[in-house]
Amino acid sequence: MASEPRRELYLVVSGAHVFEDVPGLLRALVDDGWRTTVVCTPAGAAFYDFAELERIAGTPVRLEYRRPGTGTSLPPPDAVLGCPLTFNSVNKFAHGHADNFAIGVLCEMAGYGVPTVVVPHCKPELAAHPAFAASLRTLRGMGVHVLHEPGPSLPPKWSGVVAAVNAAAG
């Protein structure tokens, strides 16, 4: 019996210090059958051990645009997961400010209609800013699945995040 083909996922990460177990999320996704490429914001680069993420995913972490004629393109994804996304990254994604590769990937994949899940994380003072609520509404209006409850933002259980990605991807 042939095995089911692996599904492609872009995991977009930004710099949220409370999400110290992003490697645990990545393991859960890979174990669930997702071939995962990690795409990181420039500010997020200081928060993660790229060698560890690459070892788990089996693919290089992508941080910036490649120059034409160099490197390889990313495989087309079946889904995109933005986790964690900071206040800044949520607002940039919602308003199309693709000033770095990671946010550009989120914006472009949403434009293609690729199923997308985001898990925002920011401190309550930032979550109270009216731009944040407006950005979450904008993302939901775009068809993005937003895993965010009002109040203090705690890291979700990875099993719930994986389930949300699977549900979004169909």
TrEMBL record:
It comes from Murinocardiopsis flavida. Residues 9-139 form the Flavoprotein domain. Gene3D superfamilies: Flavin prenyltransferase-like. It holds the Pfam family Flavoprotein. SUPFAM superfamilies: Homo-oligomeric flavin-containing Cys decarboxylases, HFCD. This is Flavoprotein. GO terms for molecular function: catalytic activity.
